[in-house]
Amino acid sequence: MSGRSVVAMGGGHGLYTTLQALRTVATDVTAIVTVADDGGSSGRLRHELGILPPGDLRMALSALCADSEWGTTWRDVLQTRFATDGPLDGHALGNLLIAGMWAHTGDVVEGLRWVGQLLRAEGTVLPLAAQPLEISAVVDGPDGPRMARGQVAVAKARGRLTGLRLEPAQPTVPPATLDALRSCDAIVLGPGSWFTSVLVHFLVQPVAQALVEAGPRTIVTLNIAHEDTETADDDRVDDVRALRALEPRFRPAAVVVDAQHDDAELRAEVADWGAHLLVADMRAPGSVDRHDVGGLATQLRTALDALTGSGDTPGMAG
Hints:
Elements: E1 5-10, H1 12-22, E2 28-33, H2 40-49, H3 55-63, H4 69-79, H5 93-105, H6 108-119, E3 124-127, E4 134-141, E5 144-149, H7 151-156, E6 160-167, H8 175-183, E7 186-189, H9 194-198, H10 205-213, E8 218-221, H11 236-246, E9 254-258, H12 264-273, E10 276-280, H13 293-307
Parallel strand pairs: 1-2, 1-7, 2-3, 7-8, 8-9, 9-10
Antiparallel strand pairs: 4-5, 4-6
Helix pairs in contact: 1-3, 1-13, 3-4, 5-6, 8-10, 11-12
């Protein structure tokens, strides 16, 4: 494995799997995590303390923990969730630890660095923005268009999503986040909840501009599931079209898709986008919506080798 730095962007279980895969094919991994979650433990801490929702950040840190007894033990501790009859019910211990470290350091990036040191994390975790974000969208349903506000509401909305917006519209982006995007060898965008964990990056202007500039070294990974609520009745070609419509200037080098979604319409759309399509069976055994870590790693290795000039996949280098 050659020395290369890769940034992974997204949130939740999709980003967790990507990070696990990238650890086997890159020497320097950075996660940039969306901060729009307003549900569960993260949402409660966000509203009570006015902090970034820590849950997806915790998941990313856990994915990067050292592969040792120390690292995996602390990972499991961070993932421990309380079940009580009191106010701690449902809180993940790691969310509370991150919130405490932010209060102690007074700095989001520095607080995450300290938690990463506790895990002996083999990589870095950074937030998309320095303030909590609220995502909203117009939902075109059977009763006509309506507005859904908040990540949970958008993710559970039934109908076609359009008109994505963020509040604040121009959030502050940590300098470390932009530096990572500009200096890395490659970027992996997705998988994840398509609108609230992937497209949301293009609503933050400095990050969108960095992604446009980094298009020739960016890999888009499409989702496995057929029935995400956000994208119900859509297929992967619709996801690509939604991304292209939101930011027409963005053109990635490669698109990775599971074989179950390979069809002529997707191939034509990706070709028109000017990207190389990588198709493989990558669904985790027994799952309907998760990538197999090893299968995803194989496809990312192929794409990264081509991007960095160490492979012979056609249509991607340069």
